[in-house]
Amino acid sequence: MDEDTIVTLIGVRMAKPGVEFIFKGKSRDCNGCNLKSTCLNLEEEGHYKIVGIRNAAPLDCSIHDGGVQAVDVVEVPWKVFIESSKAYEGSTITYEPVDCNEKDCEMFEICQHPGPVPARKYKILKIAGEPDGECIRDMSFKVVEMK
């Protein structure tokens, strides 16, 4: 695995290569668990992808039915819409989701998807293109990948 790979533990049912997830942090049931340093080694609200499964037997866990499995993960960029005027590759922005309540817009579901933490700083890695569809409010967006 490459240098950006992190070994962590994840519920057996989710432990499949290619699965992407948002790490939500610890549960109260994690207190006192001797595995928590390995389970909780990801950034809270970070976006990760499983790239490998370790050849180790699942471990018992009070939260995950069936236990937890050691996996290799990498942090993956968020793919989101931002206003075109703020979309500069390599720049750092304070992320704010699209503020819109136009439920009849063909882009509404895409604009409102869960994703990066609002008010957190992210670096725009790549301008991934133009969104499919038209904004009902005639706003101009770019699709960007950011971390």
Order of helices and strands: EEHEEEEHEE
Helix fraction, binned, reads under 10%
Rg value: 18 Å
**How would you describe the shape?**
elongated
Largest sheet: 4 strands, antiparallel
The total tally of domains equals 2
Give your account of this protein's structure.
This protein has about 150 residues and is mainly beta. It folds into 2 domains: about 5-75, no CATH class; about 80-145, no CATH class. Helices cover about 5% and strands about 35% of the residues. It contains 2 helices and 8 strands; from the N terminus they run ββαββββαββ. The chain has helices spanning about 35-40, 110; strands at about 5-10, 20, 45-55, 70-75, 80-85, 90-95, 120-130, 140-145. The chain has a 4-stranded antiparallel β-sheet with strand order 1-4-3-2, with no helix packed on it. A 4-stranded antiparallel β-sheet has the order 5-8-7-6, with no helix packed on it. The chain is elongated. The chain starts with 5 loop residues before the first strand and ends with a strand. About 15% of the residues are buried. The model has no long low-confidence stretch (mean pLDDT about 90).
